[in-house]
Design goal:
By secondary structure, this protein is an alpha+beta fold. Helices cover 34% and strands 34% of the residues. The protein has a 3-stranded antiparallel β-sheet with strand order 2-1-3, with helices on one face.
Length: 83
């Protein structure tokens, strides 16, 4: 069965996010002063072939841990659904 994983990777909250800070300044320059705490992350969508949802979940989790996310600086979450 084919599963689609929607993965979100964000810099940990205790890590400085210079891209988020730059975007926040840009928004404030556009008089959008009610926007605060901007964080920039990554969104990854991939397809996984697996016999069960549990196997697909384990595969996506392993991909995140080993390659997609830098666990020292980033945290990740994902949703899984059938194709």
């Amino acid at each position: 069965m084919t599963y689609i994983a929607e993965i979100n990777i964000m810099t940990r909250s205790e890590i400085l996010d210079p891209q988020g800070k730059a975007v926040k300044l840009g928004l404030h320059n556009l008089q959008m002063d009610n926007i605060d705490n901007v964080r920039i992350g990554k969104h990854i969508r991939l397809e996984v072939e697996a016999a069960t949802e549990a196997q697909a979940r384990a595969t996506v989790d392993e991909a995140c841990r080993q390659l997609l996310a830098n666990l020292i600086m980033e945290e990740y979450s994902f949703e899984l659904h059938t194709a």
